[in-house]
Each structure stands twice: as structure tokens, then as C-alpha cells.
Design a protein that fits this description.
Layout lengths: L6 E8 L8 E7 L11 H7 L3 E5 L10 E2 L2 E2 L7 H4 L4 H5 L12 H10 L4 E7 L26 H12 L2 E7 L25 H17 L5 E5 L5 H14 L4 E2 L11 E2 L14 E5 L21 H17 L3 E6 L9 H17 L17 E6 L2 E6 L8 E4 L18 E5 L2 E5 L6
Parallel strand pairs: 1-14, 3-6, 3-12, 6-7, 7-8, 8-9, 10-11, 11-12
Antiparallel strand pairs: 1-2, 2-14, 4-5, 13-14, 15-17, 16-17
Length: 432
């Protein structure tokens, strides 16, 4: 159990927009965080980003989660695997992929309006189709589709114009590369495939292309596969040799990353000292779990989803992590209205409460029964999911006098009283 003593505490109570419950913010001098990075300015800058947009997009969006008239369950971006589609049939989808409505600047504006600080795009998913103009394969957005334009280039340039950080997802498994592994049968795809010598060279060449041709990157998000220790080390060294401040996620495997990638949609229950990130999809625990676009997914109510996502983001940041929230565009290049509305409403909440998310440190508490906490200098920010029925909220362990307590929304004051075991707050907002 943590032991801590707060000198000169300033508690700022924050109601979480229309999120179920409230969030409280408070401050203290002398608070210490159990999460810190040492001697890595690039990693510290990466940790400060906190909240970003993940984009899963490729030729799988043409299918919309359907193959030969049948709705395919599980992950839409892996429909090639889940529907056991032969490579030649799947590759033919590229001829139908023509995202003429794609507007990179609109993506950047949406991310910024949502309060996000960075964007990570799938440059190549497990299917092996490249969303950039690689010279190492004609299985790419420029050479294989009627669109003939480099998506990675457009989005990288738009992020630069819009002041957002930019990074890329890059899959280790590659079902479209003919020399990756031998499959028996040929359409038996796996996310745990080993990396052949030929595939290793192909990956090395593509990593050099991506890191050389598209400007500064904040993150390289590797995913899955079963590389050897030497292969993981080589991939990481290529990244750092070209862009030393590009952070590498843990799924490069074999302990060669800069930060830990949590299992999809998973959040630890306590502060983790090393840097980490949770990738999340809006469709987790719905009628189908997917990252890529599926036309037949039935989403939850918008306000319920916004409530859920704000609370998840607050939990991630309070535990010292970054939250990477996904959108899955359609094959025409547009993001569906549901995802836009969720992000815009999250942005409305961030307009009022963003100071409790950015430039903060993790919670000094092991656990809070009412929600989560972040810190900034002498401030404590308390995110309250649900007020106690009697309207009295106890923040345990605060031993110094309270100078001020208020909600970030409206700046209305809250009564605070020192008592044995902590500080008691009363005066919750009736609406949030």
C-alpha cells in the first residue's frame, strides 16, 4: 500500500461532460509518480502524446466484412484468414479499391477536434497490401489500384500541416509476400508466422523506405509474427539508425521495443513504470470485434460509447499509458458518421477537461473506489465515475489542508473537509 503525504493540497473537482459519473481533479506539491523514464527525451515526448488515432485501412475494406454473400465473423481486417480466401482472389480486391473521397486533411481535423495528438496508420497489415508506394512490390496502392496515389504520403503531409505527430503500423506477417512462409494448404494464414530469410530482407528494405521517404515519425507499431531475436534486433536497429526519436512498440518482439503494447483493448489495473500504450477499437465487446470496416456491425448508442471511451481514456492516462483509439474507413476513403460523432463528442469533453489528460503524471493512489486520478505539479485531477449515494466522496490519504476544490466544467466550487483517513468532498454537480 502506498504511503504518501501531501503538502499544500489543491483539489480541483471535474465533472466528466456527459460521462456517467464525474471526474475530480486535485493538486498537491510533493506528489511523486511511480512511473518515470530515464534518459530518453524521445520516449518522454512520446509519453506526453497521451491520446491518438489509430487507422486500420486497406483493401479488406472493399469486402465490408462480407465474402461471397456471407457475413464473416471476427476481425474485418483479417477477412482473408477468416474466410480462407486464396491469395489470387484476395489480391483482385485491389482493382476495386479506389478511395476517391479520401481527404487527409479531414482526418487530421477530426483527430485534432477529438483532442488527439498523433495518428498511426496501417502502412501494411497482415494481408501484405501496401498503402504506400513501395519499390519492392507492385502489390501497393499506386501500382495495383485505380487510385494511383500514395495514402501514407498524403496523411504524413497532412499531419505536418496540421501539427499532429505521425507514425505507422507495420505488420510482420505478410500473407501476400510469396516468399514469406510455405503454407499447407495455401490459404492457411496465421498471425504467428516465422520470418524467412527472404522475408527478412523484404521487411528491412520496406522499413528503410518508410523511415526515409515520409518525414519524421513518432512511432513504428510492429504487429504479431514470430521473428527471431536477431531479426527483431535488426528491425529495431534499422528504425533507430534512420530516426532515433521514432519509438518502437513491444510487438517488434524479443524485448527490442521502447514501450510495451498492451493486448488489444486491455488496460492494467495499476501504474506500470515502463512506458506503454493500449490500442483500442470502438467495436470491442459488440456483436463483432473488428478494427477494419464492416458494413453489418451494429454499434452501440453514441452517448453510451462516448461515456465508455472517455472513462477508458481516463483510466489509461491515470495509469501512465497512452490511448490509441481506432477508426476503420470505408473503401471510398470516408470515415463512417458513427465514428465521427463519437470522436467529436469526445472532443467536446476534452475542450473542457483536457488539462486533466495532457501534461500530467499518473495517479499516486493504488486504487480509488470512485474512479481515477492524474497529477500536475500541485494539482490532483480526480475522474469520478459515480458519486457515492450520500453525495460524500472521500479521497483517501490526503493529510494537508485543502485550499480549493472545484469542477472544471463551470468552475463551481465544492466543499472540502479534512477528516481522519483523507479529505471528504460534498456538493456534486447535478448534471454533467
Amino acid at each position: 500500500m502506498f504511503k504518501f503525504r501531501f503538502a499544500r493540497v489543491l483539489i480541483a473537482m471535474m465533472l466528466v461532460g456527459f460521462v456517467a459519473g464525474t471526474a475530480v481533479a486535485g493538486s498537491c506539491s510533493g506528489c511523486s509518480s511511480s512511473c518515470s523514464s530515464k534518459g530518453n527525451d524521445g520516449l518522454e515526448a512520446w509519453r506526453d502524446m497521451k491520446y491518438g488515432m489509430f487507422i486500420h485501412w486497406g483493401i479488406y475494406s472493399v469486402c465490408e466484412g462480407i465474402w461471397k454473400g456471407e457475413q464473416i465473423p471476427k476481425l474485418g481486417e483479417q477477412i482473408q484468414r477468416h474466410a480462407s480466401i486464396p491469395q489470387d482472389e484476395y489480391a483482385a480486391l485491389a482493382k476495386e479499391f479506389n478511395p476517391v473521397k479520401f481527404d487527409a486533411d479531414k482526418y487530421v481535423r477530426l483527430a485534432k477536434n477529438a483532442g488527439m495528438k498523433y495518428i498511426i496508420l496501417t502502412s501494411k497489415h497482415h494481408d501484405g497490401f501496401n498503402m504506400f508506394h513501395t519499390k519492392l512490390s507492385d502489390y501497393n496502392i499506386v501500382d495495383a489500384t485505380p487510385y494511383k496515389k500514395d495514402i501514407v504520403k498524403q496523411l504524413a503531409d497532412a499531419c505536418k500541416r496540421g501539427g499532429l505527430k505521425f507514425g505507422l503500423y507495420y505488420s510482420t506477417p505478410d500473407w501476400g509476400y510469396p516468399k514469406s512462409v510455405k503454407r499447407n494448404p495455401a490459404n492457411a494464414y496465421s498471425v504467428f508466422e516465422k520470418v524467412s530469410d527472404e522475408h527478412e530482407e523484404y521487411m528491412a528494405g520496406q522499413l528503410k523506405e518508410l523511415l526515409t521517404n515520409y518525414g519524421p515519425m513518432c512511432e513504428l507499431f510492429f504487429d504479431m509474427g514470430n521473428p527471431t531475436q536477431e531479426q527483431s534486433k535488426r528491425f529495431a536497429e534499422i528504425v533507430k539508425s534512420i530516426q532515433p526519436n521514432c519509438m518502437i512498440n513491444g510487438r517488434v518482439m524479443n524485448n527490442q521495443g521502447d514501450f510495451l503494447t498492451m493486448p488489444d483493448n486491455k488496460i492494467p489495473d495499476e501504474v506500470i513504470e515502463m512506458a506503454w500504450e493500449t490500442p483500442a477499437t470502438l467495436y470491442h465487446n459488440t456483436n463483432t470485434n473488428t478494427w477494419g470496416y464492416k458494413s453489418w456491425v451494429i454499434p452501440r448508442d453514441v452517448d453510451e460509447k462516448v461515456n465508455e471511451q472517455i472513462n477508458l481514456m481516463a483510466k489509461v492516462v491515470s495509469q501512465g499509458g497512452n490511448y490509441l483509439l481506432n477508426v476503420g474507413p470505408k473503401s471510398d476513403g470516408t470515415i463512417i458518421d458513427y465514428e465521427i460523432e463519437v470522436l467529436e463528442k469526445m472532443g467536446e469533453w476534452m475542450d473542457t477537461n483536457g488539462e486533466a489528460i495532457y501534461n500530467v503524471k499518473p495517479t499516486p493512489f493504488r486504487k480509488l473506489d470512485f474512479g481515477y486520478c492524474t497529477t500536475k505539479g500541485s494539482m490532483l485531477y480526480l475522474f469520478i465515475q459515480k458519486w457515492p449515494v450520500d453525495g460524500k466522496l472521500l479521497v483517501p490519504g490526503l493529510r494537508s489542508d485543502v485550499k480549493k476544490a472545484y469542477f472544471l466544467k463551470g468552475n463551481s466550487k465544492v466543499k472540502a473537509k479534512q477528516k481522519k483517513g483523507g479529505v471528504l468532498y460534498t456538493g456534486r454537480q447535478k448534471s454533467c
